[in-house]
Design a protein that fits this description.
Elements lengths: L1 H18 L4 H12 L3 E2 H8 L3 H13 L3 E6 L2 E9 L1 H22 L4 H15 L5
Helix pairs in contact: 1-5, 2-5
Keywords: DNA-binding
Protein name: DNA-binding transcriptional regulator, MarR family
GO molecular function: DNA binding; DNA-binding transcription factor activity
């Protein structure tokens, strides 16, 4: 049951992301950089579960859109540090708000009790402690 739900959520998010000129990976990058403002490309790739060589294309696109910046890491000139630009933060927030509205619409089909139990179960199942 979780697989079809996941696919439905992704299908609902894709049009929202397109409206903001983002891909799923682009949104994942912006969200991760919002949570931890400065990180290396390797650390970012690991945190979002992406192959760091494939992530380069996503980062190039986000940089061309003015959503992220890359700077040489002063501690390791071979590495780049990534950060959100103010426009990147604005786009991430707008996309997240639109996605949350879609999620809210989906969850509105549940009673308050069902919703509480469902969200608690998702939290438990998605935690790393049970893996």
């Amino acid at each position: 049951m979780i697989g079809p739900l996941g696919r439905s959520l992704i299908a609902a998010e894709l049009p929202v992301l397109r409206e903001h000129d983002l891909t799923m990976w682009g949104y994942a990058v912006l969200t991760a950089l919002d949570e931890q403002p400065m990180r290396t490309q390797a650390a970012l790739a690991e945190s979002i579960g992406a192959d760091k060589t494939r992530l380069i294309r996503v980062l190039d696109g986000l940089q061309q859109q003015g959503l992220i910046e890359r700077h040489a890491d002063p501690a390791d000139r071979r590495a780049n540090l990534l950060s959100l630009t103010p426009e990147g933060a604005r786009v991430r927030t707008a996309a997240q708000n639109d996605i949350q509205r879609k999620e809210e619409h989906l969850l509105s089909r549940l009673t308050a009790e069902e919703r509480t139990v469902f969200l608690r179960a998702l939290d438990i199942l998605s935690s790393d402690s049970g893996a």
